[in-house]
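Support request, please re-run this one:
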Amino acid sequence: MAAHPPHIGELAFYRCWSPRPGPLHILVTVAGSRWNIEELFQTGKGQVGLDHYQVRSWTGWHRSMTVAMLALAVLTILAAQQPDTDPKIVALTIAETRRFLNAFILATSLLPEHTLPWSIWRRTSQARARRSHNPGWNSSVDRCRDGASRTFTWPAGTG
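Re-run finished. Output below.
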């Protein structure tokens, strides 16, 4: 099977085998799921340390992978449960959810009065960057060409 994804610009080839013949749309679905799986592994490596293990046995490796995958599942569920209310802010991601957990549960040095505005500023900046790098993403959104000031000021005593 050969595919030509427009966002990659190259031909992708897949070797497919099945004990019984199957419809083409199922082969295409299976081949397309490869990208989602690779993206999940990259997220797991970056957010929960899926590639940070030093083990000498199958049991140790299995335990390490189980804990990392459980942590990724919890972060994914927490991020997915958040309402997407403001179109000017990027939806809560797995990485941002991990930062919140680190800030509110694991680390006690940052106050919520500091962390929440920082997160909103970060996600607003990410949304602005996404709009400017991909003009067709949402044509109804302001593209920051109106000259308005987009500065962020930290609340008193937090910056």
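Residues 138-154 have pLDDT under 50 and may be disordered. The helical segments are 24-47, 58-80, 94-106, 112-133.
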